[in-house]
Amino acid sequence: MEKTYLVTNIKQLETQSKEYNEQILEKNQVITRSEQEIKRRVILIEQKQNQIDLMNKRLESLKEKAGGVELGPLELEVVNLQKSITQVGKEIFDLEQTWLREQNELVYLTNEKDTLEKETDSMKLKHTILTSRKLRTESIKIFK
Asked: How far apart are CA 39 and CA 33, in angstroms?
């Protein structure tokens, strides 16, 4: 009866371990996607920053040609680009926070998986010992 319990328990632990492995794989995929999105947005920020630099240079050049008078449309473009950069920066921050939360969950799931594997190994060892004890007991009964 104890052997049946151990076998059933081992199967349950193995099933649970597989489920955790699947969850870890899913989390890894989400993390990978988040990392790719962060990289894409960093590149976008760099591009926007380059556009701002070019616009600032153009604005300075036009201001010098116009005798120091500020030109509205280019300045407006610069302000819009700066707002866009700020927004993308906030999105990157949010993605990083999500990534960190998912990393924490991944660590938790990995630790739980390791614990379950240790339990499974312990149960397997106990099962082997009990099976061996049973065989010895049966062999002693046969020889008596």
From this structure: 10
> Of 3.30.750, 1.10.287, 3.40.190, 3.55.40, which CATH number belongs to 2-143?
1.10.287
Residues 132 and 18: beta-carbon distance below 8 Å: no
* 11-45 pLDDT tens trace: 998 999 999 999 999 999 999 999 999 999 999 99
- What is this structure's pTM? 0.41
Q: Give the domain ranges of the chain.
A: 2-143
What tens digit of pLDDT does each residue of 59-97 get? 787 677 555 556 577 776 777 788 899 999 999 999 999
Nearest to 59 by CA among 37, 76, 41, 38: 76
